[in-house]
Design a protein that fits this description.
The structure is a homotrimer of 351-residue chains.
Chain A: E1 8-11, E2 21-25, E3 28-34, E4 40-44, E5 58-60, E6 63-65, E7 72-73, E8 79-81, E9 95-101, E10 104-108, E11 132-140, H1 144-152, H2 157-160, H3 168-172, E12 176-180, E13 183-193, H4 197-205, E14 214-223, E15 227-236, E16 249-262, E17 265-274, H5 281-311, H6 324-350
Antiparallel strand pairs in A: 1-10, 2-3, 3-4, 4-9, 5-6, 6-7, 7-8, 9-10, 11-17, 12-13, 13-14, 14-15, 15-16, 16-17
Helix pairs in contact in A: 1-6
Chain lengths: 351, 351, 351
Amino acid sequence: MFPKNAWYVACTPDEIDGKPLGRQICGEKMVIYRGVEGRVTALEDFCPHRGAPLSLGFVENGRLICGYHGLAMGCDGHTESMPGQRVRGFPKIRNFAVEERHGFIWVWPGEASEANPTLIPLLEWAESPDWAYGGGLYHIQCDYRLMIDNLMDLTHETYVHASSIGQKEIDEVPPTTRVEGQEVITERHMENIMAPPFWRMALRGNGLADDVPVDRWQICRFTPPSHVLIEVGVAHAGRGGYNAPAQYKAASIVVDFITPETETSIWYFWGMARNFQPQDAVLTDSIREGQGKIFSEDLDMLERQQQNLLRNPQRQLLKLNIDAGGVQSRRILTRLCEAEQQATSSLIASA
Amino acid sequence: MFPKNAWYVACTPDEIDGKPLGRQICGEKMVIYRGVEGRVTALEDFCPHRGAPLSLGFVENGRLICGYHGLAMGCDGHTESMPGQRVRGFPKIRNFAVEERHGFIWVWPGEASEANPTLIPLLEWAESPDWAYGGGLYHIQCDYRLMIDNLMDLTHETYVHASSIGQKEIDEVPPTTRVEGQEVITERHMENIMAPPFWRMALRGNGLADDVPVDRWQICRFTPPSHVLIEVGVAHAGRGGYNAPAQYKAASIVVDFITPETETSIWYFWGMARNFQPQDAVLTDSIREGQGKIFSEDLDMLERQQQNLLRNPQRQLLKLNIDAGGVQSRRILTRLCEAEQQATSSLIASA
Amino acid sequence: MFPKNAWYVACTPDEIDGKPLGRQICGEKMVIYRGVEGRVTALEDFCPHRGAPLSLGFVENGRLICGYHGLAMGCDGHTESMPGQRVRGFPKIRNFAVEERHGFIWVWPGEASEANPTLIPLLEWAESPDWAYGGGLYHIQCDYRLMIDNLMDLTHETYVHASSIGQKEIDEVPPTTRVEGQEVITERHMENIMAPPFWRMALRGNGLADDVPVDRWQICRFTPPSHVLIEVGVAHAGRGGYNAPAQYKAASIVVDFITPETETSIWYFWGMARNFQPQDAVLTDSIREGQGKIFSEDLDMLERQQQNLLRNPQRQLLKLNIDAGGVQSRRILTRLCEAEQQATSSLIASA
C-alpha cells in the first residue's frame, strides 16, 4: 500500500553514470538513464520488440539501444529506429515523470500527467556550499512503513544502536508528536546529559570539548510519501540547546528517502547533511562510514519483524505514545492511497 | 502431521548460553532462554509491541528485553515493563511448557496445561558417571517420519554407510519387530561375523582385539513422538552377544531425538552414549566426529527422497518386513494425532 | 509447451561415465545410466520401495542399485531383486526410450512405444574423421523457445556478441526464411566485408589471410523439437562464398540441442563441428573456449527476458522479418503439441 502519484528517490546520479540502471519502484520495473542532452529519463524496462530488459542495453547519442537486437528507444517511449525496420507501428512503452534535483533522481511512478515538479521537497542543505552531504543505499526486505515507524520513533536507538548513538536518557524523555498539514513532527529534547560515542566524535570533529554535559535534540519530520528528515545535534549544556549559537554545538540532518520496491521491500537512501566543516572530505567519509554501520544494525531487525508480521496477519500491534509519529504518518499515507483509489474508481465509472 | 501435545527436544543447554535462541518447533516460532534464576523459558517469538522477534534481544535479570524498543517480557508471557509505558493492558504472548532434563531442553508445543514432565523419557545414561555422551545437531529438509523410518530400518547402513558401519551381513539377517504399548522395537542379531571399521575402532578403544569374529546387535526402540534409541554393539563371538560380560564387548546407545520444525523439515539431535571409558574425553570427541560424518551421509538421501515424495503424492510406498519398525511407529503417531484432533473437535463442539 | 513424443539430447556420454545421472527432461525426473552390456538406460528416478532417487545409487553388473536399501532395478523398470525380499509384486517404474548416437544420449520423454530411432537426426559430421567437434552444456532459466528465437535470428550477434562475432553488416543484410516440411531455414549472406575477431582467428587457424575482405554466411536450420544447426563461415571475397573451394574458406557448423527441463528452464547443449584441421585438439579446445565465452553472453539476456515475459503475460511481442525463423519454428511446435494433445484426448475418449 503506497501512493503512486508521488515523488520518490529513484537513484543517485552515480548509479546512471555511463550506463542505464534497471530498478523496480512501487512495483514498476523501470530503466533509468541519461537521454538527450544528458537529461534523466525513466521508461518501462521492456523492449517492445521481444520483451528484453532495456536496462541491459546502452545509451548512444541520447537514445537507449536494446542490447538484444539494437532497437533504438526514444525518451518518450516511442521507438525511434531499428536496423532494417520501419518502426512507426511499434507499440509505445510507458515513460515516467522523472527529475534530477538536489543531488538525487526523483521519479513519479503513477500518472505522468499529474506529476508536478514543484512537489519535490526543497532541500536547502543540498544547494548550499555551507553544507556537506554523504550517504548510501540499502536494499531491505520490509514494508516501507516499517522503516518510517523506525525513523519516527528513535527510542530504538537505545537498543539497536547501543554502542554509538543510543543512551538510556532517550527512553527517559517522552517525545512529543504533532501534525501540521501533511507533515508529522516528533521531537525529543534531552538536557544536561553526557553525549554518546557518535556525538563525542562529532563534537571533537567540530573542535568542541566532548567530556562535558550537553543538551541533545532529535526532531523527526515525516512528509509523504516516505521522506523522513531528522534534525539531530548536541550543544554544550545551557547554551540554548537546539537554538545554541553555532560555536557551541554539533548538529546535522539525518536524511532518509524510503522508496518501496514491492509491498515488502525497499530501496533505502540514507545520509547525513552537516553544516560544520563542509569542506572536510575526510570527515564526510568518516561520518558516512559510521552512519552506514549504525544503520545496517536495523536491517536484520526490520526484515525479521516483517517476516513475523507476515506470519501473523491477524495480530494487532500496539500504538504507544512513542509510536505516535509512525501512526500519524501511516494515517496520512492511508488517506493518500484512498484518495488515489477513489480517483481511479471515478475515472473508470465515468468512462 | 505431528502430535503437538508431546515433549520434544528443543535445544541443548549450550545453545542458550548467554543469549536467547529463536527456533521453530512443530510450526511454532519460539524464543528459548534462561529466565528467572536461570530457569529455562520458552515463549512465542513475537514482541507484543511491534512484532519484532524477541530472540534478537537479550536477557537481563531473568527478563527478556526486546532488542528493538526495550520491552521487558516476563517468563509467563506478560510484559513486565517498558521504558515510559504502563504495560498492564499489553496483550499476553503464549508461553510454552519447557523442562531442562538429562542434558537437553524439552518443550511441549501444544497445550501447556496438559504438559506433564513425568512423560519426559528417563535417560539413565545421562545421569550416571559410568556413561559418557557426545552428540550434535543437523537441520534437515524432510518430514520427521522419514527420519524415523531411516532409524527403524538399519539395512540402509549397508548402502548409505558402506565404509563405516555397513556390512552385507545386515541385509542377510532379517530384523524382528514388535510393539509393546506405545513402544516399537526392531532388533537384529548377527553372529560370528567380522566387525566393520567403526566397530573395530570401538573394540580397540575398549582394549579388545578387533581382528576376531564378533556377534553384533542392533536394538531400535521408538517411543512417541519421535525418539529413537538404538542399543548397538559387538562382542567377541560366542561370549553371549548382547548379554556378554562387559570385558568382551563394546556397546553403546545411539541417541536420536527428532524435532519437527515444519511438516517437511526437522531439527535432528543425534549422539552416542557409551559406558566404557566414560572419562576419556578424547575418545568422546573422536566418536562424535565419526558419528557426525556417518550421519551426514543420510542428509542428501533424506532431502532428495522428500522432494521425490512431494512431487509424487499419489504414489504408494512399499511396506516390506524391513520397514515394519517405521510402519508401526507411524501407526502410533497417526493414532496420537487423531486423538489430538478429536479432543480439539469436542472442545469446540462443547463450547 | 513442448512435444513429449520427440527425441531430445539428454546428456553426453561423459556425464554417465561410471555413475548414474539424475536429470529432469520435459518435466520428467529421470535417472540415466549404462545398464546391461553398457547400453544406455533411462528410468523414472524413483525407487519403488520408498521413493528414494535412484540416481543417488550405483550400477553393478548392469543393474541400478538403490543407494538407500539396495533394491536392484532392471533396465525395463522391473525390480530384479532386493536383499531378503521377494520382488515379483513390486510396482514397475517407467522406462524411457533412449538411444546413444552421434556422440550424444537421446531420450524420448513421451510414450516409449512410439519412439522411432530413425527419427534421430543424422549428423554426418559426428561420424566422419574429416570433422572435429567440441562443445559444452549450459543450464538456463528460460523457455526453450526463447533460445530457438535467439538462434534463428542472428542479428543479436551485433549487440550481444559485439566483440567476437558481431558486426554491423549483419544488421544491414536482411535474412530470408523459408519452411521446407518440418524444417525452417533462415539464411543471410554478407559480401565483401571484413571478418570479425572470431572469424579472423578461424581464418588464421586454417592458414588463410585474415586481413582481406571476405564473404560471410549464416544458414540456420531448425528441426523439431528443438535442434538448431547453423552453417557458418567466411571465404575470401569473390571465391564463391558458401560454395567456395575448401582452400579459400573457414567454415563450421554451430550445433545447438535445446532440451526443456521445465516450462521455463533448459539444458542447452552447444558446440561447433568443423571440417578443417580436425586432428588439431588444441584448436578444438581453443574454439570450444571461445564459443563457450560467446554463448555465455546470451544467458543473462535470456533469463531476464524470461522474467520480463512472465511479469507481462498479456503483452504481445513483435514479429518482424528478422523474427521469421523463430515464428515459423514456433508454428511447427504448436502444431506438434496440438497433435499430441488430440491424440491423447481421443485415446481417453475411446477408452
